[in-house]
Specification:
Largest sheet: 6 strands, mixed
Shape: elongated
CATH architecture of the largest domain: 3-Layer(aba) Sandwich
Distance between the termini: 16 Å
Structural class: alpha/beta
Order of helices and strands: EEHHEHEHEHEH
Oligomer: single chain
Strand content: 15-25%
CATH superfamily of the largest domain: Ribosomal protein L4/L1
CATH class of the largest domain: Alpha Beta
Number of helices: 6
Length: 210
């Protein structure tokens, strides 16, 4: 069993929670984590670069003049890339393929990323984090108290608008709903911080998957 420390918003350790390593994949799989990161970043690309080829520009496909006997160089249709206004040779086209990454692999990669944070003592649970109104100082002070001021992914059990607005402009801090976490978002920050309800929801979800 793995132990995750629990802190209050003043930075005092008030206990710990345990979780079975087997529910998180048992062992860290570096190749899977790399595949998850590459697939995630691939999906962030727009693939909007596009140029017109010979079939995309206007003009007849008729040969401009006969092959021999005119004294001119050989020439095909007006759309050719060697003429002004013609299509571009080997131009950029929209990619129609994206890297496949099935749902079970995404879940395992997410769990493996959290396992990595727990094993490196970079995961913790934050008690009683609540904002009655958007106020950056409340979240920033709590994260600083638990040593997460240099960057963290803060997981909440649901979309908490006040917490999100309070934390979104803190440097190197990402506020995410726990059900929407990805391996990339977990690994790109130094610390993984769960709120108490978020951790309970995450652990219950693991039990349901098993």
């Amino acid at each position: 069993m793995l132990a995750i420390p629990v802190f209050n918003v003043r930075g005092e350790r008030v206990g710990e929670e345990t979780i079975d390593a087997e529910l998180l994949g048992g062992a860290v799989r570096p190749k899977l984590l790399k595949q998850a990161i590459v697939a995630f970043l691939d999906r962030q690309r727009q693939y909007s670069a596009r140029t017109k080829g010979k079939s995309d520009v206007e003009g007849s496909t008729r040969k401009l003049y006969r092959q021999k006997g005119t004294g001119n160089a050989r020439m095909g249709q007006v759309r050719t890339c060697v003429r002004r206004g013609g299509g571009r040779a080997f131009g950029k086209r929209v990619s129609s393929s994206a890297l496949g990454f099935p749902k079970k692999m995404r879940r395992l990669a997410r769990n493996n990323a959290i396992l990595t944070k727990i094993q490196s003592n970079d995961a913790l649970i934050l008690e009683d984090l609540a904002c009655s109104e958007p106020k950056t100082k409340v979240v920033a002070t709590a994260l600083s108290a638990v040593g997460a001021e240099r960057g963290c992914t803060l997981a909440t059990h649901e979309l908490d608008r006040n917490v999100y607005l309070s934390g979104r402009n803190i440097p190197r801090t990402d506020v995410r709903v726990v059900d929407e976490l990805t391996a990339y978002e977990i690994l790109r920050r130094r610390k993984m911080v769960f709120t108490r309800p978020a951790f309970d929801r995450f652990r219950a979800g693991l039990a349901g998957e098993a």
